[in-house]
Design goal:
Distance between the termini: 38 Å
CATH topology: Nucleoside Triphosphate Pyrophosphohydrolase
Largest sheet: 4 strands, mixed
CATH superfamily: Nucleoside Triphosphate Pyrophosphohydrolase
Structural class: alpha+beta
Order of helices and strands: EEEEHEEEHH
Radius of gyration: 14 Å
Shape: globular
Strand order of the largest sheet: 4-1-6-5
CATH architecture: Alpha-Beta Complex
């Protein structure tokens, strides 16, 4: 069973291009890196693990910033069977991962089928999730890390 606490990691460049990955199911569902905490993990540890699993990138090699922002949302009915019975909501912790420039990523083929780097405005239009869209829309207001 999944824990109803997750991370959203917005991978972006200093020029505010955003990496989006397309889920296998449902097709056309574009998103940033996301994933639920494993037992005993902190949100930061989950962010590092999920970035690696979904993109092959080592998040420890770049500035990973906890935005200290969270979202609570209703779990889609099609995914509720993954959680303990009666669990209807998930709490999501938002992180930013700043890369110097777009890089190729290695997708986990059981989860994602395509990738694209888009300017933040276009990325916000393309994502399915409102919480992902809102995070992308906050990006220009966020201070960029020094390195």
């Amino acid at each position: 069973m999944k824990i109803p606490i997750s991370v959203l990691v917005l991978i972006h460049t200093r020029a505010l291009d955003v990496l989006l990955i397309e889920r296998v199911n449902p097709p056309g569902f574009w998103q940033s890196v996301t994933g639920s905490l494993d037992p005993g993990e902190t949100p930061v540890e989950t962010a590092v693990r999920e970035v690696f699993e979904e993109t092959g990138l080592d998040a420890r090699a770049y500035p990973l910033v906890d935005w200290k922002h969270g979202n609570v949302f209703e779990i889609y009915p099609m995914w509720r069977h993954r959680y303990p019975e009666g669990t209807l909501h998930n709490t999501e912790h938002v992180f930013g991962l700043t890369l110097p420039a777009p890089v190729p990523v290695k997708l986990e083929p059981r989860e994602h089928v395509a990738q694209t780097w888009l300017p933040w405005e276009r990325a916000a239009e393309k994502v399915f999730s409102w919480s992902n869209r809102d995070a992308i829309l906050m990006l220009p207001e966020r201070p960029l890390p020094d390195r």
